């Protein structure tokens, strides 16, 4: 237990609280969700919690494109037996598809002996596959039920807070944004070379990298960097070559420190996602901390993060993105102005604040007795003001 962290909060604990965090991705995978798992678990451990992580890599699964069907329900009985070992289960959704629903059904059967349940709602499932639409609709509806059933619900932006407030009593809902390692990204570095636009993140179909490639095709005086990896990386590398985009580098997956140094040498970071599955954008926040202008698709959550300190464009609109990139290339003063605003805003986001927000929720839940009535979804009450962590 980190005594210094405990003393700074004026808290003395006699017992170590045990948390099970269920999340889709965790280290060694490199992604925004994985970074959340790492930062929250490490921060909570420093506050004295015992944390167990359960992620997709721990569960056999079947994949169809972006849809993942886990076999976790088949293991429900064995997991249910272990639930008594935890004080809190923190589900990050969407987690392995449908596993959260099965797990919650099992938790209800534990009655008053069950752990408290915190549900962190990341984003809806938003895929374009027509054949999967009935399954996707059912799953997204189940998330509303799950959120109402949880003891507390956390979202990362005001947009999703308002969205869930239609289904969750307001006193059970908090907004806790993710953080950024501000010092690592904000340390100045000498920029070199031409106007540089960077894409940072996993390379998946919903991330919209082809939109950025189309927008930059034929542009003069632009260098494009793609940092990250994924199943589609080779496809997009070939596509860039076929489109005649010559000044583009696919860096693949690189160590965090090298990634930070590379990002700081760029001018603009683009998040061209085409799906609401992109609901925050940790990569955007890292670019903002590095003094880059954030440019992203206008999506719920993402637009909240950018605010007036960056630029959004209609999802999937390559021409609109191209117009933005050209103006940023040509108007150096405007670019510098936006970069300064974005970097100042990024300073407001910290992992420490996020960790303390979760700590407060956990402490409040464990301080209250758990009655059988808590297992029944509550009616929607009048909406006042969503809590901010």
What does this structure look like?
The strands form three sheets. A seven-stranded parallel beta sheet has the order 2-1-5-6-7-8-15, sandwiched between helices. It has a six-stranded parallel beta sheet with strand order 11-10-9-12-13-14. It is built from 15 helices and 15 strands. The radius of gyration is 21 Å and the shape is globular. With 389 residues, it is of the alpha/beta class. It has two domains: 210 residues, Glycogen Phosphorylase B (Rossmann fold), CATH 3.40.50; 164 residues, Rossmann fold, CATH 3.40.50.2000. The chain starts with a helix and ends with a strand. Helix 11 crosses helix 14. The longest helix has 17 residues.
Compact summary:
The chain is α/β, with parallel strands linked by helices and 389 residues long. The protein has 15 helices and 15 strands. The protein is globular and about 65 Å long.
Q: How do the strands and helices of this protein lay out in sequence?
A:
Elements (H helix, E strand, L loop, with lengths): L2 H6 L9 E5 L9 H15 L3 E5 L6 E4 L2 E4 L5 H7 L5 E6 L5 H10 L7 E6 L11 H17 L2 E4 L2 H7 L8 E3 L6 H5 L9 E5 L8 H8 L6 E5 L5 H10 L5 E5 L3 H9 L3 E4 L10 H8 L3 E5 L4 H5 L4 E3 L4 H13 L1 H15 L4 H16 L20 E2 L1
Parallel strand pairs: 1-2, 1-5, 5-6, 6-7, 7-8, 8-15, 9-10, 9-12, 10-11, 12-13, 13-14
Antiparallel strand pairs: 3-4
Helix pairs in contact: 2-15, 3-4, 8-13, 11-14
CATH homologous superfamily label of the largest domain: Glycogen Phosphorylase B
Number of individual domains: 2
| Number of distinct helices | 15
Through-space gap between termini: 23 Å
Biggest sheet: strands, sense, closure?
A: 7 strands, parallel
Within the CATH hierarchy, at the fold level, what is the topology of the largest domain? Rossmann fold
Question: What percentage of residues falls in helices of 4 or more residues?
Answer: 25-40%
User: Which CATH class of the largest domain applies here?
Assistant: Alpha Beta
Q: What is the H/E string?
A: HEHEEEHEHEHEHEHEHEHEHEHEHEHHHE
Number of strands: 15
Task: State mean pLDDT (0 to 100 scale).
Answer: 81
């Amino acid at each position: 237990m980190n005594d210094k962290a405990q003393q700074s909060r004026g808290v003395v604990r006699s017992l170590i609280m045990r948390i099970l965090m269920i999340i889709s991705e965790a280290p060694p995978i490199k992604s925004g969700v994985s970074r959340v798992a790492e930062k929250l678990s490490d921060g909570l451990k420093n506050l004295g919690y015992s944390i167990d992580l359960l992620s997709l890599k721990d569960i056999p699964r079947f994949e169809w494109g972006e849809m993942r069907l886990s076999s976790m329900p088949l293991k429900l009985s064995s997991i249910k037996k272990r639930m008594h070992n935890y004080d809190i289960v923190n589900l990050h959704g969407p987690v392995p598809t449908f596993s959260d629903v099965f797990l919650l059904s099992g938790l209800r059967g534990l009655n008053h002996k069950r752990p408290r349940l915190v549900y962190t709602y990341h984003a809806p499932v938003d895929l374009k596959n027509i054949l999967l639409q009935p399954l996707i609709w059912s799953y997204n509806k189940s998330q509303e039920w799950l959120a109402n059933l949880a003891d507390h619900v956390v979202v990362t932006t005001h947009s999703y807070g308002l969205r869930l407030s239609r289904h969750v009593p307001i006193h059970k809902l908090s907004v806790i944004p993710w953080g950024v390692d501000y010092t690592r990204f904000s340390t100045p570095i000498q920029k070199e070379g031409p106007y540089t636009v960077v894409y940072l993140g996993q390379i998946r179909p919903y991330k919209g990298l082809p939109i950025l490639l189309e927008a930059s095709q034929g542009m003069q005086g632009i260098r494009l960097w793609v940092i990250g990896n994924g199943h589609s990386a080779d496809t997009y590398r070939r596509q860039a070559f076929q489109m005649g985009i010559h000044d583009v580098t696919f860096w693949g997956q690189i160590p965090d420190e090298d990634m930070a140094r590379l990002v700081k040498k760029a001018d603009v970071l683009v998040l061209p996602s085409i799906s609401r599955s992109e609901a925050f954008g940790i990569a955007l926040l890292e670019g903002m901390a590095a003094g880059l202008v954030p440019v992203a698709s206008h999506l719920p959550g993402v637009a909240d993060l950018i605010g007036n300190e960056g630029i959004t464009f209609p999802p999937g609109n390559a021409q609109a993105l191209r117009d933005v990139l050209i103006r940023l290339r040509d108007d150096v003063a405007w670019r510098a102005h936006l970069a300064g605003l974005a970097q100042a805003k990024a300073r407001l986001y910290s992992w420490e604040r996020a960790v303390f927000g979760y700590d407060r929720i956990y402490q409040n839940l464990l301080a209250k007795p758990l009655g059988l009535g808590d297992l029944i979804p509550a009616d929607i009450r009048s909406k006042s003001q969503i809590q901010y962590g």
